[in-house]
Write a structure and sequence with these properties.
By secondary structure, the protein is α/β, with parallel strands linked by helices. It has eight helices and six strands. The chain starts with a helix and ends in a 9-residue tail after the last strand.
Amino acid sequence: MTQHEEGLLSPELVMAEMKKNGVTHVVWLPDSETNFLYLLMEADPDLDLIPVSREGQAFSTAAGLTVGGKKPVILIQNTGMMESGDSLRGWGLSLNIPVVMMVGYRGWTRHGVNTDTAATYTERFLNAFGINYYLVENGDDAPRISVAFEEASRTRRPVAVLVGDEYHGFNR
């Protein structure tokens, strides 16, 4: 069986949602957990990958792309998102940038016993900033990515997709 058939969150499903929503650029800090998705993104001629050296740069880069008429998505881990809170506030929220953040939910488990305090504070952080979010933990949840894109466009605000499975079934 393929990952899609088993209900796992495959990188192909994530890519299909990005393409369905017209993503032109992926702004991200390279890490090992997104490697499966990276290989697909790199091979896609319709996507431009923009690596940043610090997570906080992702928000200013996404804002610039948006103002320039492009449609970026930010791939970021929860720890990096929290570290870049001021950049998110200044570039994303203050400028009303309609961007989706695909947030790796490091430390989260579906059983409610977090293995890392990063997971403990992720949703609290998003709530403090007034950012809506959608949990995606398997292939059946993939349509929530489109819901996030629709909401970001409608509200002209950042919206988060919390990726609870890192694209390969790790937490199952």
